[in-house]
Sequence to fold (197 residues):
Amino acid sequence: MKFLGAILLVIAIILGVIGIYPTARKTAEPSLQVSDLRQRLPSRDLPFWNSAEVAEPEIFREASSAIVPEIQPAPVDHVAQITHFIKMGDARSLNFAVAAWFRVDPVATRDWLAKAHSLDSLQPALLMITAQISQENDPENALAWAENLSEQGTHEQMVFDIYAIASRNHQFTKDELRAAPLPPHLISELLSGHAGD
Fold:
């Protein structure tokens, strides 16, 4: 009897669980799966891109006829800007302004520098200008600008850099490299082909 009571108790518990958790029992309801949602419904019509009629524009594959205004930066009065930096005593900004002016108008910058009382405070600008010219593969012009560098070490290093860049681009012959206004150890470095490495 005890055995029969235990079996009835287990059955009651199982029925209770099924009643409390209806999802635990299997139902005959149809389930909707994600793969069913992704299926394309059959259509008798052709896809719209096969039957679409789009008028081609008259000027097709040509430059746009829309006028887009070109935004021009405000013109800079370089002389006024440089004069302002001189009055303020801002040597750093002065040198960057002179170098920037040279990128825009090298002739006007050169003329202004020729009229300057002293180039001592403009040595960093002259160094930037000379380096820019040497990078543009114009060693003769760069050497002329390097003559304005007053500090001996800076002048010598810049002349060496100009010759090194030009020798890499095969702009100087071996004889011209030997005649460079540099100490013998720098000339031998130029002739070795390892200058600037």
